[in-house]
Amino acid sequence: MLDWRWDFTWEILPRLIVATGNTLLAAGLGYAIAVVLGLVLAIAQRTPSQALTFVVREVVEFIRSTPLVLQIFFVFYVGPQFGLRLSPWTAGMIAIGLHYAAYLSEVFRGGLDSVPKGQWEAATSLNLSTARTYFRVIIPQALPPSLAGMGNYLVGIFKDTPMLSVIGVAELMHTANAIGSETYRFLEPITLVGVIFLAISLPAAAGIRVFERWVRRKLGLSP
Amino acid sequence: MTNKNPAGFPLTLQGDSAPMVRFAKVTKRYGQLVVLDALDLDVAEGEMVTIIGPSGSGKTTVLRMLMTLETINDGVIYVDGQPLTHMPDGGGLVPANGRHLRKMRSKIGMCFQHFNLFPHMTALENCMEGPVHVLGLTKKEARERSEDLLEMVGMADKRNQHPSRLSGGQQQRVAIARALAMRPKVMLFDEVTSALDPEVIGEVTNVIRKLVAEHNLTMLMVTHQMGFARDISDRICFFYGGRIEEQGTPAELFGNPRKERTQQFLRAVKEAV
Predict the structure, then answer these.
(1) B-interface mutation test, from A114, A127, A139, most B Cβ less than 10 A away
(2) pLDDT at residue B204, rounded to an integer
(3) Superfamily the domain A6-218 falls into
(4) Closest alpha carbon within chain B to A122
């Protein structure tokens, strides 16, 4: 029968809270990599070079069509055979960052496509450089329609960080598992992990919606 | 792609009689469709030329090619004595590279049918963007220049509004100020009143009237406002099937059109009003 022990729960909670910090760090770092790289992948598909567009498209499709956990394994365990010896953290950030960059690039691609052609033409008529046009004219307008998708993947990357436990990143899942192995009690640590994830994901999703409205107002896109 | 190595075209246009804009045998094709067929058109400095014609006659394409929004397939376009679509290289002309295009584009400004203001910037920010980041003006200089121009188009009191808060006529006036802030030598107006409600067309045409009266800008305009075109143009070009079917002063073209297609078109326009 269910044998929940509160004293044990309180005892392991501090360790799990510390591990929550690592989970948030992993999600944050991974997401930062994914956003920057995703934008690069999206813009790389808009250059006049068809060869570049083709290569980037194939890379994105490849990453999206293989499991994240496989990619994490690959970077960490196969990397050394190519002389790429990485710490679990570095390998994990590369793998998860790259994985979500592929997904985010699709979100950004849709966002960039949604900016009317007339905006590019106006930028050309004012002789703005390509970089200036992207950063000052196009991306600010591509952002609001991308925010919903970006928010989904932010919650997604957060929920996928437990996969980093397979290569020994000391995030929540890894810590809960370690507690279980040490004490032979899995009920409390694993349940707590679920509660912690829920306690962060739900407000985050709501926060993203508020942020989305705020950005639209801030950019003057909605009166 | 721009035609390579056009032969028989001068590297530059020199002399006092050189036009501000010259289309020399310019052809534009979309696949099989010939939009412009060996167009020859000169616009003198300070001249106001209006292009009229049925839709699909290539009139908007003329402006878009001049703004470098479209490449050309044959011929050469010159602006201010220099080739625009091409640049001199090894004694001949080769397609212009990005640097040459940027240099030449600074001479040209354009206003669009749908205004194309940057929606996330205020009216003032729209006007200041180019002067600060392309011309290298200080913020203070750009602000003064932009505020003067917004004043001129009657939009000074709305300078801190975003485009979503402005009417079509107001947005178009800001767009005119934004283009003028770059101090172009040639201004292009592409159906700037076509997307406007009838009651606000006047506020935009009045700004253009003022420009014609007070500035020595070279202007090319595509419009369906025949009365307006007649009032302010030095010359009217009637386009048909990618060619200039007939051209002349407004009095000649509207008062005494010689070609049958011109007569037909003007009759149809009159009936529509």
Answers:
(1) A127
(2) 95
(3) MetI-like (1.10.3720.10)
(4) B116
